[in-house]
Known about the structure:
By secondary structure, the chain is an alpha/beta fold. It is about 55% helix and about 10% strand. Helix 3 (about 55-70) packs antiparallel against helix 4 (about 75-85). It starts with a helix and ends with a strand.
Amino acid sequence: MRKGVYDLILxxxxxxxxxxxxxxxxxxxLIGCLSILACAPVVIPVYREARPSNEEHISRSFSRADQLxxxxxxxxxxxxxEDYLRRYPGGFLRDMALMKSGIIYAxxxxxxxxxxxxxxxxxxxPESRFFREARFRIAMSYMKEGSYEEAITHAKDLxxxxxxxxxxxxxxxxxxxxxxxxxxRLKAVxxxxxxxxxxxxxxxxxxxxxxxxxxxxxxxxxLIVLEKRYNxxxxxxxIRFELGRRYRDQGLVRKxxxxxxxxxxxxxxxxxxxxxxxxxxxLREGLLVDRFTxxxxxxxxxxxxxxxxxxxxxxxxxxxxxNSQPEVHEVQxxxxxSGSDPRQTIKAVEDLGENEHVMAIIGPMxxxxxxxxxxxxxxxxxxxxxxxxxxxxxGDYVFRDFLTSDRQVRGIVSYAIQELGLKKFAVLxxxxxxxxxxxxxxxxxxxxxxxxxxxxxxxxKEQTDFGDAIEKLVGLHNPExxxxxxxxxxxxxxxxEKLKPxxxxxxxFIPDTFQKVGLIAPQLAYHGVTNILLLGTNLWHSEKLIEMxxxxxxxxxxSEGFFAESPSPAVQEFVRTFKEVFGRMPAFLEAQAYxxxxxxxxxxxxxxxxxxxxxxxxxxxxxxFPGVTGVTSFRQNGEADKPVYLLKIVGQRxxxxx
Length: 658
């Protein structure tokens, strides 16, 4: 071929100009180059990134996807990234699209699919800036799905590669959480501790808080290992403090005191030092108190001795039954007589608190205020047995589990309104402290529950004829004719019409004794006040009321603190045992004293209750303690929070309705 070209040039019949000659030479060179290229081997690239021409459009799409990702609109964001991967399999943002797709799949819980995206970065883009992050997120995905061993393996493999400080700060906490997943708290603390020493500022504080949490969750044998492993530094203090607190909660007072003293000696400026000093102070108090001894201050002589001895019977039965249980620490009681003398009461409380070192005191009754003030000054928890208003306001060591006026009223009103659906009420009360207190409480509770007080009547303390008070309640009373109840001119029909009662209420509350109610109920019927519900307090609870006015009190509802005929198995067992031991039926006082003592005996047997202060806290935290007088909890002011029994008169007996 080259020869033919050359012949064409040499044998040309027309001489060419030098310009034409140059063109021919150039053509010859071009043909030669093409011939060389034609003979060269063809190289096809395996993978070459092509930068798409519409870069601006792609950039806007990725920005939109990033925003959707921040807004947690995962599927919309995912559609953009996957569209890019389909359209540009060799695109220059392929690694980023794979990373974002993997993150979204992980957020959606599709961990297998997420790992496929991350693995494509590792295999296809080993030089990508997302390479190490992809490996980290693979470990994270295993951790999130609960494959802790896989997470640990991947995290440890990644830690063998060159990493920045920030990357290590991500991986070590991940490793710590994975170790927690397999219940290896020792290695979890080790991993987190490395992260702690790498961190600064807020991150360091957050890691310390997490380590403290792990240490608190650790078992005692794990804490002992950690104590040896971390003999110095901030973790050493945390571990020793936790061990001291753990011993305290187990009731190992001396062991706890020794550990906390060591902690304060070595770490006097530790963040937990103040708390340790407080606990140590309580521990020293606990060493001075006989935690399994309860004092009793009751009127065992004098005019109120009957009540005191009845309560003591309940306490003695509780002691006998509690100590007969297996696996409890035996409790003892020390009894002191308060008589009816406040000075004798104060002396008894002082003796029990300072000389006998009792853990708590039950009682007294009549002289409760004097006892409460003294017990508060000694910081001895005291469970008073009185209805005296506001007595629990005397201090945070004063408690009451007793049938109070407000508890009775709450029970009656809530039942009448919420369960019976009644709305309109009347009150007929005696003009003395008991009646006035209940009348005011009943009025307030009605308002709070949406009820309406239609009318209120009262009568004198010594009164036995209640006709005038009743007539005023129902519109029969006429002040102008008072003292002259006959009218010779008025016809019989007019008189009958005039004397017809106006009854605008559905129920009447009478806070008085059964003796007075036995007189009032028949007189209500005499004046035409019938077909209403009578409501009363625990003072109605007597068979004599039914003997006096059976026909007139049928269906009446009263509140009570204890009911010996309750169908409750616990009550039946208590009544049976009490009758066997004492030969008589128990009533409210015996049952309440029994419950109070049982609560205290149970609490002092808890390992974490080792001082008077811890007993006080345990009482405040008590929830739903099952007793024969009801399920008991305590409010933060020391008042018992429990429902009352509600009884109904049916025929010749009382029947429990709630």
